């Protein structure tokens, strides 16, 4: 079976997030199976509406073994979880960093790779004007990226810019070090789906913004 026709089982960690729901809809429409890990059972209907299969588990209070057991099997784990706006530094650490470590441990147990959502310019210390919560978020994301690169599991790190709710154009700019700028959640979800569908694409960490290159071509260029 060639790559384009291979059915992939995806563990979508943080399955009720805005990007995760969009990516789940794209992946299931393409014939893939998505196991959506959610903390709140009330979110199951939203996951099912886009074709995902809800897996109820509290990532902050679970081990990698427990996550792997809840999923059962997966080819790729997408780490799309985040503490979100309004949460303090403590939850940035427990979700954005420690949750990523739990996901890596589950991937190692399952023999899966990890596609991780990070943030553009994550290695650059943010200005004090951004506030302590944002600084904690960025440090947690950077720590998660470094841990993934050293984890021994197969990985891809996607670092989007400032997220918007603009309708996705289907065109992006990707690169190792881009200046910060906007990118629609639609386009991020499309990039995630394209990366998941490329199981041969490993060891790439890239920034992404809205741009001029067709998403499929942009992802294909990463491996060329």
Give your account of this protein's structure.
This protein is of the alpha/beta class and 224 residues long. It has helices at residues 18-29, 44-49, 64-71, 89-110, 132-149, 185-196, 215-222, and strands at 9-13, 33-38, 53-56, 76-79, 113-117, 155-160, 162-164, 171-175, 182-184, 204-210, 213-214. Strand 5 (113-117), helix 5 and strand 6 (155-160) form a beta-alpha-beta unit.
Trace the largest sheet across and list its strands.
3-2-1-4-5-6-10-8-11
Q: Tell me, what's the shape?
A: globular
Which structural class do the helices and strands define?
alpha/beta
Return the string of H and E elements.
EHEHEHEHEHEEEEHEEH
Q: What is the makeup of the main sheet? A: 9 strands, mixed
Rg, Å, rounded: 16 Å
Helix content percent band: 25-40%
Low-confidence stretches: none
User: How far is the first residue's CA from the last residue's CA?
Assistant: 22 Å
SS summary, helix count: 7
Number of beta-strand segments:
11
Kindly state the mean pLDDT as a whole number?
93
Strand-residue proportion: 15-25%
What is this structure's SSE topology?
Blueprint: E1 9-13, H1 18-29, E2 33-38, H2 44-49, E3 53-56, H3 64-71, E4 76-79, H4 89-110, E5 113-117, H5 132-149, E6 155-160, E7 162-164, E8 171-175, E9 182-184, H6 185-196, E10 204-210, E11 213-214, H7 215-222
Helix pairs in contact: 1-6, 3-4, 4-5
């Amino acid at each position: 079976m060639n790559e384009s026709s291979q059915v992939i089982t995806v563990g979508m960690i943080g399955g009720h997030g805005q990007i995760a729901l969009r990516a789940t809809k794209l992946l299931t429409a393409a014939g893939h199976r998505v196991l959506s890990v959610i903390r709140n059972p009330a979110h199951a209907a939203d996951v099912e509406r886009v074709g995902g299969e809800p897996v109820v588990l509290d990532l902050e209070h679970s081990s990698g073994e427990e996550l792997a057991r809840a999923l059962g099997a997966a080819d790729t784990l997408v780490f799309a979880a985040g503490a979100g706006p309004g949460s303090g530094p403590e939850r940035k650490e427990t979700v954005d960093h420690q949750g990523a470590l739990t996901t890596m441990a589950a991937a190692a147990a399952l023999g899966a790779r990890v596609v991780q959502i990070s943030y553009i310019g994550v290695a650059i210390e943010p200005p004090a004007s951004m506030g302590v919560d944002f600084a904690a978020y960025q440090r947690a994301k950077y720590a998660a990226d470094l841990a993934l690169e050293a984890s021994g599991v197969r990985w891809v790190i996607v670092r989007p810019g400032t997220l918007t709710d603009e309708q996705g154009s289907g065109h992006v700019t990707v690169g190792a070090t881009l200046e910060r700028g906007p990118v629609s959640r639609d386009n991020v979800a499309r990039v995630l789906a394209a990366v998941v569908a490329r199981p041969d694409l490993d060891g790439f960490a890239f920034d992404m913004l809205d741009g001029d290159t067709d998403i499929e071509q942009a992802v294909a260029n990463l491996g060329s």
